Amino acid sequence: MHLIYIDTDREPEIPDRMRLWGSGTEHRPMGYVELEKRADGKLYANDGEINLYVFNPNDAGKSLTGHEVRRAFASYRVLNACILDALLKHQDLVPEEWKLAMVFFWGTILKGINDHLFVEALAFKDGRFARITMPLDCKWITRFPAALLQPA
User: Fold this and answer.
1) Do residues 136 and 118 make contact, with C-beta atoms less than 8 angstroms apart?
2) Start-to-end C-alpha separation, the chain
3) What are phi and psi of 88, to 5 degrees?
4) pTM of the shown model
5) 3-state secondary structure of 71
6) What ranges in the chain are assigned the alpha helix state H?
7) What whole-number distance in Å separates Cα of residue 122 and Cα of residue 84?
8) Cα diameter, the chain
9) What single DSSP character describes residue 2?
């Protein structure tokens, strides 16, 4: 069992050439979070399990813009980029299954220097996890999962 505490209300680490202010940006506060990887290999935040969820529109194989995916997750308890920051620093907390997909943190939306909006993800490459950003303007394959907090 490994446990850390995170203040998710603070501003997350912002990649170069990005900002967390201006029209369309967002950072959903979650308060202080106790992040724990348990013996079962799963990740928990404040005793609620963190699951990966893929938004799946009715049309199989349909691609959406990132803006549509963001709207679809508007009522979900998505994790913000402070959790992403913590997982990058404590990679032993990341569940093994997360190596198979890019995991998106829809609780934080950033703006690039070109005023386009971006969401961040955790991706496994070259033997470790890394931060990536994806623009919301592009077409998304709906199989990219979001990290969601399930109630305890």
Assistant:
1) yes
2) 18
3) -65, -35
4) 0.93
5) helix
6) 66-72, 81-89
7) 7
8) 44
9) E
Beta strand pairing status for 63-65 and 48-53?
Answer: unpaired
Tens of pLDDT, residue by residue over 42-88, are 999 999 999 999 877 655 566 788 999 999 899 999 999 999 999 99
Residue in 109, 100, 86, 95 with CA at minimum distance from that of residue 23: 109
DSSP E strands, 59-127 = 63-65, 103-112, 117-125
CA distance 74 to 90: 28
Token pair listed for 104: 């998106």
- What does the block give as tokens for 40? 């079962």
- Other Cβ atoms less than 10 A from the Cβ of 27: the count is 19
Q: Shortest CA distance to 19 belongs to which of 84, 116, 89? A: 116
Residue 149: exposed, middle, or buried by beta-carbon count in 10 A (0-12, 13-18, 19+)? Answer: buried
Distance of CA 9 to the CA centre of its chain: 15
Q: For the chain, what percentages of helix, strand and coil (3-state, to nearest 5) are there?
A: 15, 40, 45
| Cα–Cα distance, 120 to 108 (Å, whole number) | 8
Across 103-129, b (16+ Cβ under 10 Å) vs e yields bbbbbbbbbeeeeebbbbbbbbeeeeb
